[in-house]
Specification:
heterodimer, A: alpha+beta, Ribosomal Protein S5, domain 2, B: six-stranded mixed beta sheet, globular
Chain lengths: ~550, ~375
């Protein structure tokens, strides 16, 4: 959508455009704007650390300078940014490392950090200060931007030698507000910690209160690697973007084969025969919008092998478990991991769900909490229009012994990972209602709910057993006395034996039943060659 | 049953349970199911009795724990009564057992007497024993006059009671006619049971039992266990038993309870049934024989009609053609007659009526 807008405003710079339309990046609302700023830097930091193989440590400090006026300092222990890239990274829109890569990453579009620089400048007139330690050099720089040209302006104020690495960004904002609500930084960082158990995150709030979410696992997640996009799922403007940047290919035919997965010479021949009016020998950057539309249309009529799905890196069963225990310490926890599927026929994704019930969830006073994540990034806003929220609304919780979802101590984590997450807007806070995606979310939540149901009914049973035991124990003394007077036996001995019998018969099975249920084995080894969303037996009758 | 035998049965019950407990099992005892479906008509003997279906009462059952404990408490308490040679009513037992189960339990062993009734029946069935054997008495209601002497051992004393010398009041039939009571001498020719005390007093005043040399009994409505047991013992002495009841639902019920026993107390079986008894009146057919009765009928109530219909469906009743005929007549005329109506013309007619019926063998089986 933003790309369509770009076309209309071609005469302005991108930066100029966003200056006027900052809500499109998520800078709408005072609390939300501040959370979005932290989000941009934290996700960049996490991605940078992971790519460099460093266990992330992120610290955030928010200081109140005046009414709706804050200073935000965010540091990471990542590799830092080399001097040559500093300006582009923090001062130029769409200039990051992410935009044209088909890889599972948090940010996906490198619009974030520069947008913050811009937001800071237009609300306070202040430039952003960056301290980067990279390759033995530590430099402090002041960064601002030329909105008209979408060009960064960098002024290095200090340069020293260092053995450290990392990046600290200090900036000021007005028109924002700090709040400890469901939409605030605290909740954002808590959920980030939940989905990223390998990182330690600390926060100093404006009242100087310090919170640390320590890491619960000591290894970085498997690195996501870049894959070629699959032709299915590509839209005309994507095709044009790829074609524009394809300098090494001289012809559209070779461009298609080299850029996309599963495109063989034979498949290109198929496309050619369907599109006689298009010259597949012309240079890719000469491709017109009409050409792109026609090619995309033809792509949909060719039979493709489904894309490879092994590029996806979910949080992981053990990791979700560790961090849930770390942050919530629930009475019961069930985690479901679905095998990768594709949506729009060509975009791999996978869904993982964790449901925590009782214990720390109740203690934290959380009721019916839905925690949405995309590529491990918490989505705090726009819940109403999100595919995850929509899907959870369709779950019949009563079937799982959860009488009223909104009032029970239950927290549901849904993480969707994909090389291309279908966000509804550039704010990246809601997933669009892709049919295949919603089906997968539903199956995953249902699967986990069955585990919760087993636990709740097990607990019910344990309570029943305890009640029975109480009833039966109640009359032991009287019964023993009367049996004693019928038999001349000592009442104490009869009572003792009876108590032992009762203890043995009404064993407290509660301890056994709070174990989280075993993971169902059904969908562990699904390959996804069909490209169809897999439906496990028993799930279709929902 | 002697006290020592009853006591032994109670001790056996306790020992059985303790044995189970020693073996690491929850205590149980077996009793016969006392439901309508397990009530059968014993054709050979002509009485209602319980069938073979057994039921196990378990202490380790939420639904049964309390009643199980209560049953054992009754057993222990009645053992004590036996040892002390003291008798009490079920009400007395209830008060003996109405105490708190302990300070930490806000609960009494018994809260209602009704709780104990079924449990006593359980004990009777499980031990094959009568409650009277456990020194539990029931209220007396029946009266008897006639040429019979009773040796009554009671309270450490022994008395001979001459039932021909009880004047206007008659001998009150005790609740237990088996223990400590023997028939010393019996010179009567038959037993006459009349439903109502009023008629008993009529016949007593008329010296009917002296003239006829019979034992004149009234259960005063439904028979107590003691009265039924006594009738059984008299029948065992080969005395015919004739019954004179109202011709209505209640009268029939009283008669059939004497004859076959009732569904509720079917577990008592043959010891309490008198299949030899005969129903000499009043019958609907009497109207043709004694025309004055025609004017003395009453409109039958719904309960009478319903009862008549029910009786026709019972196999132990509809096997008697004379009864089917009588009941059909009732259903047809929709009338009933009270035994008091026999005094309608002449007070002393009752005796004549009975004599004629017995002489002519005009009875229903």
């Amino acid at each position: 959508m933003e790309d369509d807008v770009f076309k209309q405003f071609r005469e302005h710079s991108v930066a100029e455009f966003f200056k006027k339309n900052r809500q499109m990046l998520g800078f709408s609302g005072k609390v939300r704007s501040l959370t979005m700023i932290v989000h941009e830097f934290v996700t960049n930091g996490l991605d940078a650390c992971e790519e460099a193989g460093i266990l992330p440590e992120i610290s955030v400090q928010v200081e109140e300078l005046g009414k709706d006026h804050y200073k935000v300092t965010i540091s990471d222990n990542g590799p830092g940014i080399p001097k040559s890239h500093l300006g582009k990274a923090l001062g130029q829109m769409l200039a990051g490392t992410k935009f044209h890569r088909y890889i599972q990453q948090r940010g996906q579009q490198g619009i974030g950090a520069a947008a913050c620089t811009m937001f800071s400048y237009i609300t306070t007139g202040q430039s952003t200060k960056a301290i980067t330690s990279h390759g033995g050099k530590k430099l402090t720089a002041i960064i601002s931007m030329d909105f008209k040209k979408n060009k960064p302006i960098i002024e290095v104020t200090e340069e020293t030698d260092t053995e450290e690495h990392g990046l600290t960004v200090i900036s000021e904002y007005k028109d924002v507000r700090y709040e400890r609500s469901n939409y605030g930084i605290f909740e954002y960082l808590r959920r980030t910690a939940l989905a990223n158990p390998h990182c330690t995150i600390s926060l100093i709030e404006p009242n100087n209160e310090k919170t640390v979410f320590p890491r619960s696992v000591e290894i970085n997640p498997k690195k996501a690697y870049e894959i070629k996009p699959h032709p299915l799922g590509i839209k005309p403007h994507d095709l044009l973007e790829f074609a524009k940047h394809s300098v090494e290919n001289k012809r559209i035919s070779s461009f298609l084969q080299n850029t996309f997965a599963r495109v063989s010479a034979a498949k290109v021949e198929d496309l050619k025969s369907m599109l006689p009016e298009i010259d597949f020998n012309k240079r890719p950057d000469k491709m017109s919008w009409e050409d792109a539309e026609a090619i995309v249309g033809a792509i949909e009529n060719v039979k493709w092998i489904a894309p490879s799905t092994d590029s996806l890196v979910p949080i992981g069963r053990e990791q979700v478990e560790a961090s849930f225990r770390n942050i919530f310490n629930p009475e019961v926890l069930v985690i479901t991991q679905r095998s990768p599927k594709v949506y729009r026929g060509g975009i791999p994704f996978s869904v993982e769900v964790g449901i925590a019930y009782g214990g720390g969830v109740a203690a934290a006073n959380k009721r019916g909490e839905v925690m949405r994540f995309a590529n491990k990034v918490p989505l705090l806003f726009d819940a109403g229009g999100c595919a995850i929220t929509e899907t959870i609304k369709t779950i019949d919780w009563k079937r799982y012994n959860i009488r009223n979802f909104d009032e029970e101590p239950i927290a549901v984590l849904v993480n969707v990972v994909s090389v291309h997450v279908p966000y509804t807007s550039a704010g990246k806070q809601a997933l669009s209602s892709e049919e295949d995606l919603m089906a997968e979310i539903k199956f995953a939540v249902m699967e986990a709910s069955r585990g919760i149901q087993r636990f709740i009914s097990g607990r019910k049973k344990a309570n029943e057993i305890a009640t029975k035991k109480k009833v039966v124990s109640r009359y032991i003394e009287q019964l023993s006395n009367d049996l004693a007077s019928l038999t001349q036996r000592k009442p104490e001995r009869i009572a003792k034996e009876l108590r032992e019998i009762v203890e043995e018969k009404y064993v407290d099975t509660k301890k056994e039943s709070i174990k989280p249920p075993e993971k169902p084995k059904a969908n562990e080894d699904e390959s996804n060659e069909s490209g169809e969303p897999d439906v496990n037996e028993g799930e279709t009758n929902e | 049953m002697s006290d020592s035998k009853a006591m032994k049965k109670l001790e056996e019950l306790g020992r059985g349970m303790v044995k189970q407990i020693d073996a690491g099992e929850g205590p149980t005892f077996e009793t016969t199911l006392r439901t309508k479906s397990n009530t059968i008509y014993d054709e050979g003997y002509g009485c209602l009795r319980t069938g073979e279906k057994k039921e196990t009462r378990k202490y380790l059952s939420v639904a049964q724990a309390r009643t199980f404990m209560q049953t054992v408490a009754i057993a222990a308490k009645t053992k004590q009564f036996l040892a002390q040679d003291l008798h009490t009513s079920i009400r007395g037992l209830f008060y003996q057992l109405k105490f708190s189960l302990g300070e930490n339990l806000d609960e009494d062993l018994f809260t209602e007497q009704s709780e104990s009734n079924g449990l006593i029946e359980d004990l009777e069935v499980a031990l094959k024993i009568k409650r009277e054997d456990l020194h539990l008495t029931t209220d007396r209601k029946g009266f008897l006059a006639g040429n019979m002497k009773i040796r009554d051992k009671f309270g450490g004393e022994e008395t001979i009671i001459d039932l021909a010398k009880q004047g206007r009041s008659g001998w009150s039939i005790p609740s237990d006619v088996d223990n400590g009571m023997e028939i010393e001498s019996l010179e009567a020719d038959y037993v006459l049971v009349v439903e109502k005390d009023a008629l008993w007093q009529r016949l007593n005043e008329d010296k009917f039992w002296k003239e006829e040399n019979c034992l004149l009994v009234t259960p005063k409505g439904q028979s107590t266990r003691g009265t039924r047991r006594l009738l059984r013992k008299l029948a065992d002495k080969k005395l015919p038993v004739y019954c004179l009841m109202d011709c209505d639902a209640w009268g029939w019920y009283i008669y059939w309870t004497i004859k076959t026993g009732s569904m509720n107390l079917a577990y008592l079986g043959r010891d309490f049934a008198v299949p030899e008894s005969r129903f000499i009146g009043v019958t609907m057919s009497d109207i043709t024989e004694f025309s004055f009765l025609d004017k003395l009928t009453i409109k039958a109530k719904d309960v009478d009609i319903k009862r008549a219909e029910e009786m026709m469906s019972y196999p132990w009743i509809n096997r008697h053609k004379d009864w089917v005929r009588e009941l059909k007549l009732v259903l047809k005329t929709k009338k009933k007659i009270e035994q008091d109506a026999l005094q309608g013309q002449r007070l002393t007619f009752v005796g004549e009526y009975i004599k004629q019926k017995i002489e002519n063998k005009e009875w229903l089986s």
